[in-house]
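Interim report to the steering committee. The following record documents the input for MFS transporter (418 residues).
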Amino acid sequence: MTRQKAIWVLTSVMLLSVLGTAGIALPYPVLAPYFLDSPPNDLTHFMGIHPKILLGFSLAFYPLGLLIGNIFVGALSDSYGRRKVLLITLFGSTVGYVLTALAIYYESFIAFSLARLLTGVCEGNMSIARAIAAELHPHIERTKAISMSYAANYAGWMIGPIAGGFLVVYGVASVFLIAAAGIAVALVLVFFTIERSQEAKDTSMLHFWTVIRRNNSLTLLKDKNILPIFWFYFLYTMGLNAFYDFYPVWFVDYLDEGSKTIAWATVALTACMIIVSSFFVDKLNARYGEIKLIIVGSSLLCLSFIGQPFIEMDLVYFVFATIGVFIAIANGMVPTYLSKYFGHLGQGKVMGLQTTTFCVANVLVASLGGPLSILSSRWVILAGAGLVFASILVMLKTRNRQQAMIDKHTKEQETLTL
């Protein structure tokens, strides 16, 4: 592959990430006002359960699907080819969003939850996009390629909430239909730009189930060297998801704001994430290294989460922009770390483990945070700060062990190049 071809592939991956993530993010500023501020209906008051608890469960079903999908989607792409698995899962995502819109129209909480679960399973494919970006090394430096992929994800998180916040006037169901259209565009993009490669020689069902059983992302946890970064990321994303999932609830509870304000706050957050990830993460990594940046970025994020629930409206956009900077620094290091030191175990599988960890954390936080938010959404975000602090302690405790692994890996790479 030439560098020019690698740049074209990275551009395609970034466009896929923007469209895919925008489809995911479209409903985010919509769900909290829909469950908490809209006129009661059979979906938002299912069986007389408190709307905040139903919101928590509805937030949990999507990442639960992501969890299921990411356990095997990345690994299947290692065996069957990135393109084939992406096309199948993107089609499934499109169907999932259409079914979600129908569930809202017919006011069925069970159908809504199952549709969100299906959509999540199929959207485990974001790990494939990151694997493609990582495999462009050495034509494009690994940290740079992954950082640009993450910047595209952040752009999707910015575009999606803006669209959701302003399109909600046409109805909540229409937001999910537009998300389906965005994913359909991503499907067409993959069909015409990603080349066929890495097709499996054995396509039998026996081979399929063998890949899932023996080569899924969770098998990486047998490697003791990966456990420190896994436990860090698990605790870190628990805290991060406490913020992601419940800051819209905080807007409704404490500032009495709706979808448009939530959307603009998300713009401030993600715009800084895009800028830092695109232009600074790779330079910071080259100068300071992954471990130091993870610790510093997480520490600053922890402090921000402690203060954020108590700010007034005039500080919202500044504080959310600052949080975006710290998230980009810490987030950008984890996939680079995993790809660089464990990519030989399968890039799709490694990226799948990262996303699987994120999803487990999201399911737990959404399920537990819903009941806690009845007391106060502030408590959920503060609990998130405590979890990020716990993740920092894990990194500090295992820092020497991880550095020894990095030094060993570096020596082995130097030996191979001689």
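The two ends are 23 Å apart (CA to CA). The committee is asked to note this result when reviewing the revised timeline.
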